[in-house]
Design brief:
Helix content: 55-70%
Oligomer: single chain
Largest sheet: 2 strands, antiparallel
Radius of gyration: 16 Å
Number of helices: 5
Shape: globular
Order of helices and strands: HHHEEHH
Structural class: mainly alpha
Distance between the termini: 21 Å
Amino acid sequence: MIVRIDFNSEEAIYIQLRNQIILGIANAEFKEGDNLPSVRELAENIGINMHTVNKAYTILKQEGYLKLDRRKGAVISVEVDKCKAMMDMMNVMQVILAEAYCKDITREEVHEAVDRIFDEFL
């Protein structure tokens, strides 16, 4: 598992880690049932605190991307609640689209950007 942490980013390290794991699932780098490194192992590999990795794993579990098993550790297990996922996505997108609107980004430009990003996952 290759993780790239930007220690100069304003985004919290645990969020960067969470986002990279979600992108890895979307890009099929990780598949259902795959084990992630232990909290200690991943923390040592990327040079961060174990509590930071634990926080990312806990959030991923709460969001339905991981199961935490005492024997197997962190296992990719994507729970699908499409209705909740749509509502969560719309809540996040509302602010992003408001920012785009304020900066004169057109509907067509937004659609093109979404298509380009979505195509990366196919």
